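Subject: design request, 486 residues
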């Protein structure tokens, strides 16, 4: 299957910005490690996992991710112009270069960081512009501007930077700063550029504020760090990545590679080797919308939920994408879903691992809310977990008596060769499961009568006759599952 992904123009999630309060899942730092210890001892006790459920229900999945970004600086203090009407000049929402006389001019920037800073200041003053960097140059930035923790002036206009294979790097002895802050009304385009060594509070390399936009093409964001969220990128506006790599970035809290509360689109890219101290080794999505097509999310790690991707209260849409070899200390080795919507199409979730449950995917609902996972024409394979179980998928409603539901739908897909203490293929706790033309084959549960194919504590009736549940060990199903035998 391809390693890459499709575009989505859904902007309906803009209403999620009514609050600036940030959250992370379950755990961070020492608290996260405590959760790992407690979850690790749950899953093998009882087919319904009662003790484990009590423990999970008492946990608070969301805590303060960060009170404010960079002390709240940079929102509107410069009096930059808004994002609509005449305030945008002649630019449309995507920042198209409709003013051809001005946008057509390209300013070449010599291999000198001071000249780059001056060029950005001028472009902001001139209502935008295009900057062409010196081919193959390394621009070493040494000074934190003091304006929101940036090494470069904030982007307040429509600015394109043609990297020409150049690199922006923070000097090793410099005080911490990110490279770019895209303010409300600003639109940054980066192409053929490497950003490395950035260190910011939110967004180690780039922070896109609400009302701002960034398009990043054929670029590399590598070895950046965030003291809070978004090791490489904190996106609170609109950000698109195309043919870009996000690798070996770290966040103390959520989103080792990217933290998103806005609209994030990723196409034909690679997110690998990123680390988060809380949720989302590669991506943490909080009440935002994420669209990923033809992309590889591989080898990422988190202490909190979602070794590859974590989403809470948002929408994540994956197509033609591979989520592989990710790990977490809690639930959802590949993808962790909490009170969210996950759509998986023509994709693979493979060789992921978790301690708490859901080696491939963990879908969790709670607090009167619903959480939905829909899988079409995809493959969930060779994932592993202990804890609550669900080698391929864990589907759990934490508070069934209070309303809301965890819903799992699998169509024309394979769940094969997964392994767990309970429910090698699927572990369902108080949720709903619908299987249509699915193949649940050759999965393994380690506990006696653990349900190698499916383990459920509630009856599953929506299994159509074309679904095959077979050759699982030590048995196919534990609990009542229509059209499952043995």
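Subject: RE: design request

Done. Sequence follows.
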């Amino acid at each position: 299957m391809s390693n890459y992904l499709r575009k989505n123009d859904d902007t309906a999630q803009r209403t999620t910005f009514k609050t600036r309060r940030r959250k992370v899942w379950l755990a961070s730092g020492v608290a996260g490690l405590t959760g790992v210890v407690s979850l690790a001892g749950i899953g093998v006790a009882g087919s319904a996992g009662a003790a484990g459920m009590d423990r999970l229900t008492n946990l608070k999945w969301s805590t303060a991710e960060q009170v404010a970004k960079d002390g709240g600086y940079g929102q509107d203090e410069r009096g930059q112009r808004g994002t609509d009407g005449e305030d945008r000049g002649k630019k449309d929402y995507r920042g198209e270069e409709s003013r051809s006389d001005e946008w057509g001019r390209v300013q070449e920037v010599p291999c000198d960081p001071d000249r780059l800073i001056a060029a950005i200041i001028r472009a902001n003053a001139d209502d935008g512009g295009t900057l062409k960097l010196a081919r193959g140059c390394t621009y070493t930035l040494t000074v934190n501007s003091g304006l929101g923790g940036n090494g470069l002036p904030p982007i307040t206009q429509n600015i394109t930077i043609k990297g020409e294979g150049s690199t922006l790097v923070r000097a090793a002895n410099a005080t911490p700063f990110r490279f770019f802050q895209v303010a409300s009304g600003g639109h940054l385009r980066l192409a053929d550029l490497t950003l490395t060594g950035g260190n910011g509070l939110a967004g180690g390399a780039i922070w896109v504020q609400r009302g701002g936009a960034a398009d990043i093409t054929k670029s590399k964001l590598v070895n950046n760090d965030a003291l809070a969220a978004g090791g490489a990128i904190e996106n609170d506006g609109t950000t698109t990545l195309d043919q870009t790599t996000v690798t070996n970035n770290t966040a103390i809290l959520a989103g080792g590679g990217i933290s998103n509360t806005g609209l994030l689109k990723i196409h034909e890219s690679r997110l690998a080797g990123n680390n988060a101290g809380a949720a989302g080794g590669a991506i943490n999505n909080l009440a935002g919308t994420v669209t990923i097509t033809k992309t590889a999310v591989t080898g990422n790690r988190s202490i909190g939920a979602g070794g590859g991707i974590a989403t809470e209260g948002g929408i994540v849409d994956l197509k033609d994408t591979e989520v592989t070899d990710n790990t977490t200390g809690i639930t959802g080795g590949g993808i962790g879903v909490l009170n969210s919507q996950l759509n998986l199409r023509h994709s693979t979730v493979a060789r992921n691992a978790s301690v708490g449950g859901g080696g491939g995917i963990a879908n969790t609902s709670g607090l009167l809310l619903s959480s939905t996972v829909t899988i079409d024409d995809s493959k969930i394979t060779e994932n592993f977990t202990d804890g609550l179980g669900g080698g391929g998928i864990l589907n759990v409603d934490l508070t069934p008596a209070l309303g809301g539901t965890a819903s799992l739908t699998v169509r024309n897909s394979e769940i094969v060769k997964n392994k767990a203490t309970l429910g090698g293929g699927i572990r369902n706790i108080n949720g709903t499961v619908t299987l249509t033309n699915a193949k649940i084959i050759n999965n393994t549960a380690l506990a006696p009568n653990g349900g190698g194919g499916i383990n459920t504590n509630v009856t599953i009736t929506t299994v159509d006759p074309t679904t095959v549940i077979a050759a699982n060990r030590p048995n196919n199903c534990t609990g009542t599952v229509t059209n499952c035998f043995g």
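Helices lie at 29-40, 50-58, 100-103, 113-125.
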